Amino acid sequence: MNEFYKDEYANTLSSTDYQFAKQHLSLKGLLKPFKGKGEYETILQEIESYLSRLENIAERLINDTRDKLPIKYLPFYLKKRRLSNGSVYLSWKYKKIVIVDGKTSRTEIEGKRLILDALEQNNLSYEDKNFIRQLEIDRLTLNFQMRVCIRIRHLINEMLPKFDELNIPTK
User: Fold this and answer.
1) Which of 34, 43, 85, 167 has the highest count of CB atoms within 10 angstroms of its CB?
2) Is the pTM of this model over 0.85?
3) For the chain, which residues make up each domain, given as ranges?
4) Radius of gyration of the chain (CA)
5) How far apart are CA 45 and CA 37, in angstroms?
6) What is the secondary structure of 44-80 as a DSSP string?
7) Residue 129: which of 119, 138, 137 has the closest Cα?
8) Confidence (pLDDT) at 127
9) Of the candidates 27, 19, 24, which has an alpha carbon nearest to the alpha carbon of residue 49?
10) Angle at alpha carbon of residue 125, lines to 121 and 130, rounded to 5°
11) Are 145 and 54 in contact (CB under 8 A)?
């Protein structure tokens, strides 16, 4: 493989991309008994920081794969989507443009189907297929971690007003 091809080839995530999560937000730490509102607020701040870092990793993954091999030859690409709850997740978007009622629109197909179709193509090398497989694992992992953090954030936000109710001074 020549140097140009190496520069042209995209990279997937490494285990060091998730090192901060392993060090700061372990499940063991999240399941410890909390002593009060302050500890919940602290973990909420950590989760917000973690969500921000996950979003940065997702953005980097999109940028690092957008116009590089083998993705640039496939009929789909990674796209970041923001949900109403503030979370971000990665999905596959099909590049094919369809004209509906005189307007152009890009069709979206389930990501799993796109990946499985790509892995069945005979014109892709073994390395390309491994890269696509790893990219899908990275996408699923990021989405899963984001969903877990959003759920924990939601539960903590439900819990905090209950502490406020308990702090009402008695007469």
Assistant:
1) 43
2) no
3) 25-166
4) 21
5) 12
6) HHHHHHHHHHHHHHHHHHHHHHTTSBTGGGSSEEEEE
7) 119
8) 84
9) 24
10) 90
11) yes
Decide if 63 contacts 77 (C-beta within 8 A). no
- How distant, in Å, are the alpha carbons of 13, 78, 126, 139, 144 from that of 136? 11, 10, 15, 5, 12
Only one residue has tokens 């899908």, namely: 136
Whether 98 and 112 have beta carbons less than 8 Å apart is answered as: no
Predicted local distance difference test score (pLDDT) of residue 28: 65
Angle at 152 between CA 43 and CA 83, to 5 degrees: 120
